[in-house]
């Protein structure tokens, strides 16, 4: 049971789940200096998520956003590059044996936008004086309006990875478009009431919470230990999912109760590439030794190569463009020239789930659809 809870907890981290590795400089101070201002101009709460419809970012008006008056100043923070969290770095959060946890401005702005439901760009603000705290816990940063900004004014201090309002962190509560295969959808009420399906549906729904609230990804590691306290206190129907109580996790969160999420299941008609003829939802692929596997732009060259080589026998590429494939895939480098290309949840066109979800919710997966490519680069 503990192993299953651990798997399920991983799914709360975000639509990326356990599938992201980003190359980072090893010098923490250099990274902070290089990232005082986020590089991603489109860094907002809807990144990599097409189904987040609960609340729109604050509408533009003649009044400037006062940074000192923001409701939520205690934020999750890690290292993010072009909208993708560094999961290796995330594993060090709170690890006093390894104090190399990095925090950069892009991650801070991402969380600031999500929790406060605003849509600031990096050009609107300046983030400085980033202090990583102790292994990332209880860090601080200063944010102030950029000179001449037409969107914000003032400045304030932010507290990082300490006393985060969990309710705000999962503030997008309308989980629209929870795609599920046809035979389950057609008998949804019966299937979801079956006690044997409780873990499968719980994991499936929790993944969607991560899709709708991607700043959870910054807290991947502590959420693993928190799962054992959260998951036994979950109730749900086909229309509602309730977390009865959340833990504080040694001051990381402000504990809360009875967090309710609205559910909307829809029949999954998204396109997919066909998996291998075995039980796991993946495809094995061999690539030429000269394949470009540079991590630049989150492995964009490798993604292009894989997309081109994937079998199109069921014409899935007619519905899923290369751009869509690039947006909703993440790459993890394995051993011996192996690369794992994971199709994440969140696309309305491309079938995708966290690969680990299969081990709890396999019954709900499409029998033919794949969510991972195992790409082996030849040695010679």
Report what the structure shows:
- With 380 residues, the chain is of the alpha/beta class.
- The chain has helices at residues 2-10, 28-34, 87-90, 105-116, 166-169, 182-186, 188-193, 198-212, 220-230, 296-309, 322-327, 358-361; strands at residues 65-66, 74-75, 80-81, 84-85, 125-131, 139-145, 152-153, 155-160, 164-165, 174-180, 234-236, 240-245, 253-254, 257-267, 282-287, 329-333, 338-343, 372-377.
- It folds into two domains: 1-269, no CATH class; 282-377, no CATH class.
- It is built from twelve helices and 18 strands.
- The strands form six sheets. A four-stranded mixed beta sheet has the order 2-8-6-5.
- It is globular.
- The termini are far apart.
- Residues 12-47 and 52-57 have low confidence and may be disordered.
